[in-house]
Each structure stands twice: as C-alpha cells, then as structure tokens.
Amino acid sequence: MIRLDRLSAKQLFIGLVIMQIFIWTLVPTLTHTSLPLDVVREGLAWGHEWQWGYHKHPPLPSWLVEISFLLLGDVGPFLLSQLAIVTTFIFIFLLGREIFSEKEALIAVLLLVGVYYFSLPTAEFNHNIAQMPVWAAMIYFYYKALKSGQLRWWCLLGVSAGVGLLSKYTVLVLVCVMFFYALFSPTNRKIFGRLGPYLSLLVALLIVAPHLYWLVANDYLPLRYLSDRSGLIDSVWMRPLKSIDFLLAQVASHIPIILLLLAGGMFKHIWRMPGEQKIPVAVSDRNYLLALGLAPALIVSVIPLMGGSGLRSMWGAPMWSLSGLLLVMFLGTPSNSAKTNRFYWVALSLLVFFPIAYGLNSMLSGTYSKKPKRTAWPDREIAERMVNNWNSVADCGLNIVTSDGWLGGLIAIRAEDRPSVFLEGDFSIAPWITPERLNKEGSLIVWPSFKTGSAPDKYAKIPGYSYGGVETFRWTKSTGKAAPIVLEWGFVRGQCEKHADTQ
C-alpha cells in the first residue's frame, strides 16, 4: 500500500481538489440523460432571462448555471458545482492553517468528505450549493479581519457577503451570528468603533444594490413567496418536532465521518471533558469555531417554533464547513503514521465510493425503477416532438414555452432556438414575458397529462389558447417497469398564424 502519509499536506490537498472535481464532474455527465431538477428549473429556466432577481431567490446561482451551460453544455453545471465545493475546501484549509498546523488543516478538510452535503447532493448545483463557498469565504475573511484589523479583510468580507446575498437570503443568518459574536466578545466588541465593519457593510450594499432595486420594483416578489409559504404548521405541537427533525437530519448528515474517525483512531478522545481539546487552541479561536460552526443551524431550527413553515434538511448545506475543524479541535488527529495513512486511505475510498454509488443509482433508476429519476427523462425526444408540434401550427420559430420550470426548462434547453419559459403562465413570476410579447410571438403550452383532453385552467385562460394533443414518451433505458411519460400540449399562435399556403 502506498504510504500517503509521506506526502506533504499541500500535495494531498491538491490531490483532493483534483479528484473531487474530476470524479464528481465525470460521473453525472456519463450517467445522466437529462440535467437535474434544480439545474433546469431554477438555473437554466431562470438564468436565461438575466434578471436581477426571480420569484423565489436572488439571481447569481441562476446566472452561473446559464454561463456554465453556454460554455460547456451539460458538463458545465456539474463542473460548476464541484468548483463550489473545492472553493469551500480551500477556504477551510486556509482557516485551518491559521489555527492549527497544515497537516491538521488537511485532516479537517478530509473529514468533510464524510459529510453528506459535500458528496451526493453536489451533482445538482442549486442555491444551497452556491452558498457553501460563500459561507466558508465569509468565515475566513471575518477571522482575518478580527485578528488583523486590516481594511482589506473587511473589504473582502463585504464582497463575500454581497455575493452571498445575491445567492440566497439565508446568508443573513451567518451575518447575524457574526454580529452577535463580536457584540458579546469583550476582545472583539471594539470593532464597532472602527471603520472595518462599516466598510464591509458599504461594499456588500454596493454589490447587492441592483437586486435591492429589483426587489422594490417587483413588489418584493421573493419575500412574498416566502410569506405565502410560511404558517404552514397548523399544530403548535408539531412545531418542536419540525425543529428536532431538522437538527436530527443535520446530525445524520455527519454519519459517514464515523468511518474516518475510526480509521484514524480518533474516537478514543470522544469522551473528553467538555471544553477540553486534544490540540491546544486559543480560547478566542475555540469560541470562534463553536459560534460560527454551530449557531447558524441552531438559529434556523427555531423557525418552526415561531410559527413558520417546516424546514428542509438541505438548508443546512452551507452550515457545516467547520465540522472538520471542530472535530480536530476536540478529538485531535491520528496519533501515529500508520493511523494517519489509514485515515488518508479511508478518506480516499469515500471520495471514490460516493460518486460510484451515485452513478450506479442513477443508471439503475433509469433502467429498473418504476419511477425513474428526473435525470433519466428523455428530454431531447420531448423537445424535438414538441418543437415539431409547434411548427405544425405556427409559422414563427418557437420563442416561448408555457409550462412549469422543469418541463418547460427541459424543452427550452434542448430546442434549437432556446425559447423563454413562461412559468406557470403567470406574468407575475415570469416578468420577462409580457402580454404584448405573448401576443406577438405566441407560445407552445405543455403540461403533464391528466387525461382530460383539456388544459389546466391557468393555461386554458390564456387568450387565444387552443388544444393541441397528447404525446407519449418511453424511458430511454427502462426495462418497461416504469409507466410512460404522457404529456399534453396546446398553443397560442399570437401573430404566428399558420397560413394555408405554408401548411
């Protein structure tokens, strides 16, 4: 067996970065027929329109997905997601070197291989994945700003916070933790009398200003969306259960770390007295890691208790980049070279095992499952037939597809003209479509079949709507266990009337 422990920490870290990018980009590229749900629905369907905001989220992740797709096709979003993950690794490695040795920083990063959020979900780039490097960057820059007081670190903190706000509003949870950490820390409270924090705030506001303007101009659309989804927990008794369920999901996401701790012989320190670290760490550093590593999830878990909606476990994705550093602080690192080598090999094995398991699951789901995954949809065939249907009733190119974000997005990304998606036929959530544009360019309308021979009311009410027909699609790799996909379609010709001499 190759002695990985004889390599330097930098060499192993570079190897980790290369393997993470290569394996996790290659596997979904080879095993997916179509792109994942959030990549299509909230990435390409939105990002193609280059808005400063969308009805659920800020714009940056959607823009990045669109750019990656334009540059690299289907590979782009998979590569983008892994760049987000390795950027997170880089900032945690840098922070780890500030507090621990370089080897201990490496072990902390390798422990993240055993955190669920850094493996299986990363094949699907979305707003949660986009937040992960932003949170890690903010934590690193804030640490450097507190330690040095230099304005450049405060400026970089502002940049990362602004980028975070353009990614997802939950970054405000981290901002709040940072504020109260300094406020209740006698040694850090003095920063409020200095320029640094206010420079950070100014830089962040400058970056997010266009989005804030968009929010006002669009009647705070994402906030109204969030408000409409709140208050869904009717029973007071259910609220604590939702909080507990979220926290248990976060604990469960760390279960694979147990293999790494066992391999490194680090479990023998797990019963240390609270507050006693295996590796000596300054009290300020210990408090920093504890506050920023644990407080965000605890704060978010309180939301159901306040009468809000239930929580999704994936909201915890950006909150655990400090897990490895916390474990190193309290449990130490492997005590000898043999255990260190074994730890490295188990980390490497997990890094290879998770994507292979993911790829096999994707292939088997598409072949044998009664309900294949969305990544097994025959998207190109769907798009080809639907575009042909449109061409049979209209003499303009297809510029608008009216549907939900998933189905409309699938057709749009595979259609040659890359049409816009008119989300749910609702002008309020798809402001890039106006009644004037719809009347001029017309639209193909597609929906999952309800076998009624008519469109849902939201589509049937569109002026000029006509029913088209039904299309049935077989799963490309299925053995026949899965029911076929049945879609119905209609159209609004607008000014794209099919004249008799062109029929």
Automatic annotation (TrEMBL):
<dbReference type="GO" id="GO:0016763">
    <property type="term" value="F:pentosyltransferase activity"/>
</dbReference>
<feature type="domain" description="Glycosyltransferase RgtA/B/C/D-like">
    <location>
        <begin position="56"/>
        <end position="214"/>
    </location>
</feature>
<feature type="transmembrane region" description="Helical">
    <location>
        <begin position="343"/>
        <end position="364"/>
    </location>
</feature>
<dbReference type="Pfam" id="PF13231">
    <property type="entry name" value="PMT_2"/>
</dbReference>
<feature type="transmembrane region" description="Helical">
    <location>
        <begin position="67"/>
        <end position="93"/>
    </location>
</feature>
<dbReference type="GO" id="GO:0009103">
    <property type="term" value="P:lipopolysaccharide biosynthetic process"/>
</dbReference>
<keyword id="KW-0328">Glycosyltransferase</keyword>
<feature type="transmembrane region" description="Helical">
    <location>
        <begin position="313"/>
        <end position="331"/>
    </location>
</feature>
<feature type="transmembrane region" description="Helical">
    <location>
        <begin position="288"/>
        <end position="307"/>
    </location>
</feature>
<dbReference type="InterPro" id="IPR038731">
    <property type="entry name" value="RgtA/B/C-like"/>
</dbReference>
<dbReference type="InterPro" id="IPR050297">
    <property type="entry name" value="LipidA_mod_glycosyltrf_83"/>
</dbReference>
<feature type="transmembrane region" description="Helical">
    <location>
        <begin position="246"/>
        <end position="267"/>
    </location>
</feature>
<keyword id="KW-1003">Cell membrane</keyword>
<feature type="transmembrane region" description="Helical">
    <location>
        <begin position="12"/>
        <end position="31"/>
    </location>
</feature>
<keyword id="KW-0808">Transferase</keyword>
<dbReference type="GO" id="GO:0005886">
    <property type="term" value="C:plasma membrane"/>
</dbReference>
<keyword id="KW-0812">Transmembrane</keyword>
<feature type="transmembrane region" description="Helical">
    <location>
        <begin position="196"/>
        <end position="216"/>
    </location>
</feature>
<keyword id="KW-0472">Membrane</keyword>
<feature type="transmembrane region" description="Helical">
    <location>
        <begin position="105"/>
        <end position="123"/>
    </location>
</feature>
<feature type="transmembrane region" description="Helical">
    <location>
        <begin position="151"/>
        <end position="184"/>
    </location>
</feature>
<protein>
    <submittedName>
        <fullName>Glycosyltransferase family 39 protein</fullName>
    </submittedName>
</protein>
<keyword id="KW-1133">Transmembrane helix</keyword>
